[in-house]
Structure formats: C-alpha cells, structure tokens
Amino acid sequence: MPDSTNPPNPPTPPNPPTSADVARLAGVSRATVSYVLNNAEAVRISEPTRRKVRAAAEELGYVPHAAARSLRAGHTRIVLLPTSHVPAGPLYSTFLNELQWALRRLDYTVVQYGSLGLTGDEAVRAWAELRPVAVISLGETALSPHNVDTLKRAGARAVLTLGPERVAGAHALVMDQAEVGALAAAHLAGRGRRRIGVVVPEEPGLDLFSGPRLAGARTVPEVEVTPLALAYTEESAAALAARWGELGLDGVFAYNDEYAVLLMRALLDAGVRVPEDVAVMGADDLLIGRLVRPRLSSVRIEMPSGEWLAGLVDRAVRVPSAMAERYDLTGAAAVPREST
Amino acid sequence: MPDSTNPPNPPTPPNPPTSADVARLAGVSRATVSYVLNNAEAVRISEPTRRKVRAAAEELGYVPHAAARSLRAGHTRIVLLPTSHVPAGPLYSTFLNELQWALRRLDYTVVQYGSLGLTGDEAVRAWAELRPVAVISLGETALSPHNVDTLKRAGARAVLTLGPERVAGAHALVMDQAEVGALAAAHLAGRGRRRIGVVVPEEPGLDLFSGPRLAGARTVPEVEVTPLALAYTEESAAALAARWGELGLDGVFAYNDEYAVLLMRALLDAGVRVPEDVAVMGADDLLIGRLVRPRLSSVRIEMPSGEWLAGLVDRAVRVPSAMAERYDLTGAAAVPREST
DNA sequence: TGGAGGTGGTTACACGTGTAAGTGACTCGT
DNA sequence: ACGAGTCACTTACACGTGTAACCACCTCCA
C-alpha cells in the first residue's frame, strides 16, 4: 500500500487507480465495484452502496483499463484499418474519414496501421496481435487466403477487402478501377482521338489505383496508349509539357482531376491548345475540375459512403454467416465538359 | 482440451492459440516459450529447444496477445490522436498523415479517436481507458488542466496540444492562426484595400482555424472586416457572388486557397474583376493557387513536419522531464501573386 | 568425495477485470 | 419456532503474458 494519506496533487502520480482502490475507499468488495460501475441489473445492490462506490470512483478519478477488460472478455471492439502512407486524393480521403467517423459512432475503436517495410506475413501478424474484431484491408498489400486465415484465427469476425478482386475467405468489395480507365479511353476515342497518353503518378502508394486505370485504358481497341510518369509538382508538369510535341498525342487521361488540372495548366502555358490540340480527361469528378477553364471532363465514380461500409462491417461482425461474399461497387460514368 | 487431433482446416476456428498451446506442442513449459519467442538473452536455452519452440509456434500460427502483454508490462505503445471528423484542408491532412506514418516507424500504435457527441470529460475518460503512452490533442476540443491530469494519472507520459494557446501540464505546440489573418489583412491594406470580407467556412470542425484567422484580420486597424459565410460548393459561391455588389468590399481573405479559388471563380463568372474590383487572398499556399489565373496570392504557413512532431513525442515519452513546455510554431509570410 | 559453479530448464506470481457461485443476515408464512 | 425465500453482498477463478526465483543435473577441481 504505497499511497497512504493521498496528497491532492502528488508531484509524481504513482499509479493509475484500479477498481481495487475504489473498492478499498468505498469499503466494499471489488466485485461490487464492478457491478455498480457496469450497471449490472442481474445483481441487486442497494442505492446507498451504489452512491458510495460512484463517489469513490469519482474521487480517485478511476478509469477502467481497456486491455484488462478485453482480455477478460475475450474479444475487442477494434477495427483495424491498414492504410498506405499517402493521402491518395480527396475522394478517397473523404471516404476514409467518413468511415472512421461512422465506425466510432458504432462504438468501434479504429486503429490505423501502416505496414511499414514489413512483408505481408509479418504485417498481418502484427495486426493479429491486436485481436481486432474486424479488418478492413484497403488493398495496399493484397491479402493472401493464408493471411485471412491468420486474422480469423486471431479472432477477427470479419475481414473485408476493398480492391480489384476478391480474396478467398474474406468479404470483398470489388471495385473495378479498370473500368474508369476504359470509360475515359472510350470517351476520348468517341471524340476522335487515337493516340492517347495516360498519366501515372510518380508518387508511391497510388499503384493500386493507377495500375488498373492504365490497364483499363489499354482494353479500348481504337486507341494506342502511352504511359506518362508525372509527379505532383509544377516542375514535373512543365517538363512533360516541354517535350509534348515529340510525343505526338491527341488525347490524355490523367488518373485524377488534380493531376489533370496540373497538366492542363502546363500544356496551356506551353502553347498547346485544349481541347483543339489535345483532349484532357480527369477522374473522380472533383470540384476543382469545374473551376478551371476550359472546364475539365472527368469520370465520376460511385464511392460507397463511409456510413454504408461501417454498417456493413457492423453486420458482418454480429452475424458473420448472413453476409454476401462479394459486393460489386461498379458505377462509373463519363462526365463530358469542355476539355474534350 | 477441446481440440484433440487438430484437423488442418476446421470449419469453425476454435480459439486463437496461446503460448500455452505452443508449450504443450513443443513439450516445454510456457516460460520457455516466452523466453525463446522474445529472444531473452539473460536466460540460457539450448539451440534444439529453441528450434522446437519456434517450429511449434509456426505450426499453430501463434501470435501473442497485445492486450495481455501490455497488461503485464504495465504500459502500452499507443499514441492517441483525437481527430475531428473533417479533413480540414490538404495542408493539415498531409501533416496528419506524415505524423501517423512517422509514429508507426517509431513503433507506436496510432489510435484515432473522435470525441463524438461526448462532453470533454467523458471523451477524456474514454481516451484514458486505452492507457495511451502519449496523447496528441489537435485542438478540436480544448483540454482543461484537469483533463490533462486525468490522462497523466492513467499513464500518459506525454500530452501534447496543438492549438492557439498553452494548457497547464501539457507540452504545447502553440501555433497562432491569428497571425495568418493579420498578415493577410495587412497585405490587403498595403494594396490600398480598406473594406475587406473574411470568408468563414460553413463546414463544421474548422472553427479552430477559422475563428482565430478572422480575429487576426480584425486586429489590423486600417481595414474594416465583414465576415462571409461560405460552403464549399459552387452554389454557395455563386450565391455569394450574386450579392457581391451590395456588400461594397474591395478585398477578401478566404481562409484557405481552396475556398479562395472557389470564390474567385464565382466572382469572375459574375463579372467582378480580380484584382481590379476586388483583391483576393488565400492561405496555406496550396498548389492549386498557382494553377489558376490570375494566380492567387496567399499566406504561407510553416507547418511542422510530421517526422519532427513524432520525434518530439518520442523524446517526451522517454524523458518526460527534459522537455520544453512550449514550442512556438510561428512562421507565416505573405506570398503576393496576381490576385491582389 | 564433496561442494562450487554452470547449464537448461520449471514453478509461481502479478497485471486489472468480469462474473458464476457461494454466504450470511433478515423476513415471512405456517 | 423453523425451513423457505429474498436481499446484499463477497469469494474465487479465468483471461494470456513476462519474469524473478527456484531446482535438478552435470562438470570440474581440491
């Protein structure tokens, strides 16, 4: 018993108070404290005792220990969100924010976990240590069926993947980014363009999106595709615009409205006319595309709302069986404006 | 012992394997398992035994239970990041991302925690349950000294606040958003403008930034300030531009480059000339401001890098005493371009 | 031969919590 | 007056881990 005669503000706070401390101060057993503080209804505790316990807890500033609690309970309410280290565009980042917020509202604890330089297996084991009740893999690293198994053995009741294809054992939200590229290329082809460039961001971490979008553009037979690396800086865009003539392109699909606006600006500054000399197309239908002149053509994507996904996770956790294994989030449409 | 004769793929995975299961399979005691798997050097274990244990752990897919571990250890490596539910601009959101990534690299577990509709005290108690080793309050709700005390009693070795003023007991990163507003207003005044509007976003959650920026603008004696509510949509901007004439303003400071670009577009579309009729000024010096015409004047802000802040947190955790109580992150400068 | 010292383990406890099962005191109906 | 039944608690165990303390065995030297 190290703390006799509690000073009001000890210079070195000794230890977080436990329910045993509360029990001692209230003059009851630890079990009673637990019953009172958890509002147990099956056990009858007199009102005066309840007040004593609550007062003692208040005075000590008692806060239960989440780790001990979930150790005892055998499960957590942690939802693991392995994220890459790049913001990946406003559309995606808004979605992510919504998702976190909605999960919090459903009383889950959201834990962000970057996989660092670890291999897939190492990363998954690190995730499993937290015993998350659900994992939402956003596709930075594709999960193997074995990984899904590891997570489920560690107590995960739901493993969701958001990516281009489905993973065995997990619930999959299949969203086909290839279709975005295909729509863009088809739209450019419809405008009579035949030799188009596809901007691939140099920033790492976007591969999951940029790869399929490029591949999708290649599936359109009428056009010939040239990949173009571009960093999200004015210098990089100016350099690309400077060698534009020798590329011989009459259309360009720029991965994203942000990259598209950047490139279009550089092209205009270099004297290339849009859309006369080159048609420019973005994606994600961001507000910025409507604020520039000429207005940017784009591809609108149906992102699921964060609330919807959070609700899906919640259902999957509560009734793991009664869930579809695959949800198709197809829904993209070209939005023609002035730049094509 | 429910699992005799382990089938390779049981349809219902029974329970996550524990170190006791590993010990049983390897034919050693649980302590030996712990020593081997944690590479304890103080205890001597023969090489054949080590291999047996590792093999057993591998076969069972054993993953340690983080909650049990940190319960025993008496501390965690959780860094709590109470965030608001709005992205709050690219500058800030990039910073946040950097921070999370850097913390992960230092082997901390980042937990995002929105405070929902809870009161300050309730929210802080919810945070304390996780026994985080550090809390980085990003100022959504200002912490009271009592709150800081609660967190420290719960084991937090460092509480950092990022906001306009310092909180007793916590390490403070004081970044004065008022200066941003003052600089913008002063710059407009220097261009001869006297009646300026200050755009205040209608989106909730930005109050912490927009409030001080507005107040800062008001500290400049030469100008008269009119607050202007604006949502981040084209409709809202168009509506504001439509009644521009009756406002009688010759300058506007728009909180953010994004809001500035939005408003400037609407003004130009409504026939208001920039900068002849009205000078427009943004903040945060985003790339977008350099891509529009006329180029947007802005206020550049020295945000600390995420790595820097992560390093600071790490030092605060390891040597709580040897730390300054206050860091001033002042460093803003007007960046004149064509819109003023 | 016998004790000192090293080798390779094991036994036992603590961390903080939730809850099933048990217990003593009191009331009540016959 | 005495078993049955309620009330208001307490006792005891389990969750999974790390580590200090203990112990059996072997080797080596006096």
From TrEMBL, chains A, B:
<dbReference type="GO" id="GO:0000976">
    <property type="term" value="F:transcription cis-regulatory region binding"/>
</dbReference>
<dbReference type="InterPro" id="IPR010982">
    <property type="entry name" value="Lambda_DNA-bd_dom_sf"/>
</dbReference>
<protein>
    <submittedName>
        <fullName>LacI family transcriptional regulator</fullName>
    </submittedName>
</protein>
<dbReference type="Pfam" id="PF00356">
    <property type="entry name" value="LacI"/>
</dbReference>
<keyword id="KW-0805">Transcription regulation</keyword>
<keyword id="KW-0238">DNA-binding</keyword>
<feature type="region of interest" description="Disordered">
    <location>
        <begin position="1"/>
        <end position="20"/>
    </location>
</feature>
<dbReference type="Pfam" id="PF13377">
    <property type="entry name" value="Peripla_BP_3"/>
</dbReference>
<dbReference type="InterPro" id="IPR046335">
    <property type="entry name" value="LacI/GalR-like_sensor"/>
</dbReference>
<keyword id="KW-0804">Transcription</keyword>
<dbReference type="InterPro" id="IPR000843">
    <property type="entry name" value="HTH_LacI"/>
</dbReference>
<feature type="domain" description="HTH lacI-type">
    <location>
        <begin position="17"/>
        <end position="73"/>
    </location>
</feature>
<dbReference type="InterPro" id="IPR028082">
    <property type="entry name" value="Peripla_BP_I"/>
</dbReference>
<dbReference type="GO" id="GO:0003700">
    <property type="term" value="F:DNA-binding transcription factor activity"/>
</dbReference>
<feature type="compositionally biased region" description="Pro residues">
    <location>
        <begin position="1"/>
        <end position="17"/>
    </location>
</feature>
